[in-house]
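Protein of interest.
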Amino acid sequence: MNKEVTVAICDSHEKAEKVVKELQESGFDMKKLSIVGKDYHEEDKVIGFYNTGDRMKNWGSAGAFWGGIWGFVFGAGFFLIPGLGPVMLAGPIVSSLVGGLEGAVVVGGLSALGGALYGIGIPKDSVLQYETALKADKFLVIAHGNSEELEKAKNIMSSTLGTKVEMESKESAEA
């Protein structure tokens, strides 16, 4: 089976929020959307926790952005990832990351987040690009679904951001 996703790299949380709102207004199923971004404020106390059945209860410093995002997307997580720092995730990617952490499965030298990206359908050669974007304080908006849904999401993301957005396919990239 071919695993495909569409990934947009957003330069700011405002752009990520705009993409999410455009997808939501177009009727895209918000349960098929993942968002990944760094939390900018490190503290000595816990600033969030993972909860698949509900929503994040504590947001940290990016509260307004993440609070708005969690209004659309289900499943949330906050993780401290070595080499990346505090990262907040929403959507199907959370279970992929947690599954990898619980099973201690990290694919061929990839970080835990890289393994999660790989697990949702992103080829290994693209994982580094997305991890680099996150290290540069950018956000990933990831659409999951069938080819028709992903094409629609790609077009919305591209027009909203004014840049080309690609579909990622693990099977076709590594076949």
The CA atoms of residues 58 and 86 lie 14 Å apart. The two ends are 12 Å apart (CA to CA). The first helix runs from residue 13 to 25.
